[in-house]
Amino acid sequence: MICVSIQNKEYQEILRILETVEMAEIRLDRCALEDEEIEQLFSDSDVPLIATCRLNEEPQAPQLLELAIRSGAKYVDLEMEAPAAVGRRIREACREWGTMLIRSYHNFENTPSLPVLQSLVDRARQFGSDLVKIATTATSEADNAVIAHLYREADSGTLVAFCMGEKGRASRLEALRQGAPFTYACLSEEEATAPGQWTAESMRKALYGDFHFVKASSLPMPSSKSFAQRAIIAAALAEGTSHLGGYSDCGDNESALQLARVLGAKVQVNGSQLIIEGINAREGALHLPEMHTGESGFLTRLTIPLLAALSAEPVRVTGEKTLLTRPLTDAHDIMAAYGVRLYPENSASRKTDCCLPLKVAGPLNPGRADVSGKGGSQLLSGLLAALPLTGGKSVLYVHEPRSLPYLFITVDVLKKFGIRIGSEMEGDDAFLETQDWSLCTGVNFRIKGNQHYQAADFSIEADWSGAAPFLVAGAVFGDVEVTGLDTRSLQADISVMDILMEAGASMSQLDGPDGPIHVKRAPLSPFRADLNNCPDLFPVVAVLAAFCPGESHLLGVERLRHKETDRAAAIEAMLSKMGVPVRVEEDEMVVEGMGLSRRLATGHLLKGGRFASHSDHRMVMALKLAALGADSPVEIDDVACVSKSFPAFNEMFDSLLSF
After folding, report:
1. What is the DSSP letter of 646?
2. Residues 6 or more apart from 615 whose CB is under 8 A from it?
3. Is 59 buried (19+), middle (13-18) or exposed (0-12) by CB count in 10 A?
4. pTM of the model
5. CA neighbor of 402 nearest in space, from 531, 229, 491
6. 232-287, pLDDT tens digit by residue?
7. What is the pLDDT of residue 120?
8. 126-151 burial, b for 16+ CB within 10 Å, e for fewer?
9. Taking CA 71 as the corner, what is the angle to CA 65 and CA 76, rounded to the nearest 5 degrees?
């Protein structure tokens, strides 16, 4: 990225400049700013900002840097010559407030020897710096070579080293080729902060050429099908008429509406509102010879326990397309724990991993079961929905839970319809301290029998999984704002926010927890993400990793094996074909990424070509995202399958390049 150095400017001038740049360094010792203006500047700006203040020019430098840190500066730059006490003070403030620390060395006379410079870099690391800046003066081409050699020992994205002076001019662009997360430029030649500094405009032309960045605002996200499908089925089971706002159609949601109609509910779709008159469901009251669940794996697993509880005789469950080959892992044993038998029609279908079509033979008996959650949450959500209809108390203990947030989405939706389920989560001291769901070792659900669904009126949440490609697009390729999301959501895919923040993206939200979310380009870093609870994010997060310099580690590979395709193999094949080093080590995918600026500077954009979607809507989203950083068009064999979850996705995503 190009960081523009700003000096000798007043507050309003700086605000106007920030509207035109992608990153900026604010010289607090040379800009006439009041404390309140510093606070507002660093707290309000979506542009990644570096606060710097030379100690020899401003006696209040430590206080000004601390104020910038507390106000939200992304980086603070402190000279290596700073007294040790000041260094400790600034380092501690950075750790407390989450600001990245740059320790910098400037030499305006010459370029010291490589051993001397390397010792300075090592010293800065010992000082606890996140990033080291080395700026020396080139007196010959050999000095540029010395600076370039520093990058050989540094991890990508952790060093910004270049030469000042006219003989060092080329090294400023070369820094990006070597792996610097950004380089410095000036607004104009008259405002250069050091000899040989490029203007921002000349640097943009040299680095970006005709590359297209994305920009979009107020992109409305569709309703979450995780919430919509649960709410539709619950409304169909309820006594009375439910009104569900915020609805948007997709293939899986339409399958849920059709299933509700087959159950006997009366369904009206009035724009974005659903009006559903329920059947006042009672145990054993239905007579349904067959139920079709479309291509929705969740709907199938939700339906099996419900049919066992509601139907007086065995019910044949059918599906279509990829669903017919996707195993219902552990369904036979889990359902047998409550007295339900499953009879797959395919004789080759194993009891532990049976497939559709199959017959479900109830009744569903109340009781206690201890089941593994390693196979996912969907069938367990079905049990949570069905067991309240039985005639007695039940306990469902889930050990080794995966996709745990989805179980609590189920509990939350059922609560809106009058169903009460108690729960208690278990874990070690780390879990008790952090309440991090990935550390949970077990959940105990307590379910009263003889409960009845009651009609409800509420709005369905917008979808975080559908928003993820747009949020990542903003973080890597430009500037994107999405609307309709709730940051208080229980959706597992809200984890994309944490992942983007760990990777270093610039994010902001105005107007409360359901206000617009704005994501903007910033220097990115490799990250580690446990995606066991949010496997739908995996393809898009893998593309994000491809643009983060260094190795990113993504956990949860085994959860991907039985999605619409073997999603783990599909992601690995996609990245490899695009030229991104990737490997799978048991349950972990390791992606070796490179920042966008370095890819542009070195000509190493992702490789385009023709790719298979494997009829997987999440792979289409990942491929469309990757195409933004490809050197040639990315052709996808089947983009229509995205209608399964987000029919308007292709049109909306293509609009990112239309500004």
Report:
1. -
2. 321, 322, 564, 565, 638, 641
3. exposed
4. 0.91
5. 531
6. 999 999 999 999 999 999 999 999 999 999 999 999 999 999 999 999 999 999 99
7. 96
8. ebebbbbbbbbbbeeeebbebbbebb
9. 35
Q: How far apart are CA 546 and CA 507, in angstroms?
A: 20
Token pair for 109:
């006379």
CB atoms within 10 A of CB 564: 22
Are the CB atoms for 159 and 180 separated by under 8 Å?
yes
Stretches in the chain below the pLDDT threshold 50: none
Look at residue 65 in the predicted model and tell me its pLDDT.
97
How is residue 420 written in tokens?
């009460």
Please answer whether residues 21 and 2 qualify as being in contact, where contact means their C-beta atoms are separated by less than 8 angstroms: yes
Placement of tokens 């999405």 in the chain? 482
Q: Which residues, other chains included, contact 569 with Cβ-Cβ below 8 Å and sequence gap of 6+?
A: none
Amino acid (1-letter code) at residue 412: D
Unique residue bearing structure tokens 């610039």: 506
DSSP letter (8 states) at residue 293 = -
pLDDT at 560: 82
Q: How far apart are CA 470 and CA 606, in angstroms?
A: 18
Q: What is the DSSP string of 67-123?
A: HHHHHT-SEEEEETTS-HHHHHHHHHHHHHHTPEEEEEEE-SS----HHHHHHHHHH
Query: So what's the pLDDT on residue 203?
Result: 97
In whole angstroms, what is the distance from residue 12 CA to residue 17 CA?
Answer: 9
DSSP H or E stretch at residue 25: strand 24-27
Q: What is the pLDDT of residue 573?
A: 96
Question: Is 542 strand, coil or helix?
Answer: helix
Of 266, 274, 267, the C-alpha closest to 223 is 274
pLDDT of residue 565: 67
User: Distance between CA atoms of 330 and 251, rounded to whole angstroms?
Assistant: 26
- For residue 207 the two structure tokens come to 């680095």
280 Ramachandran zone, left/alpha/beta (phi>0; psi -120 to 50): left
> What does each C-alpha distance from 646 to 410, 466, 473, 479, 653 come to in angstroms?
21, 7, 17, 22, 11
pLDDT reported for residue 635: 97
Q: Of how many residues is the chain composed?
A: 659
Catalytic residue numbers? Answer: 106, 133
| CB neighbour list of residue 165: distance below 8 Å, 6 or more residues apart | 137, 138, 139, 195, 196
- Residue 41 · residue 71 · CB < 8 Å: yes
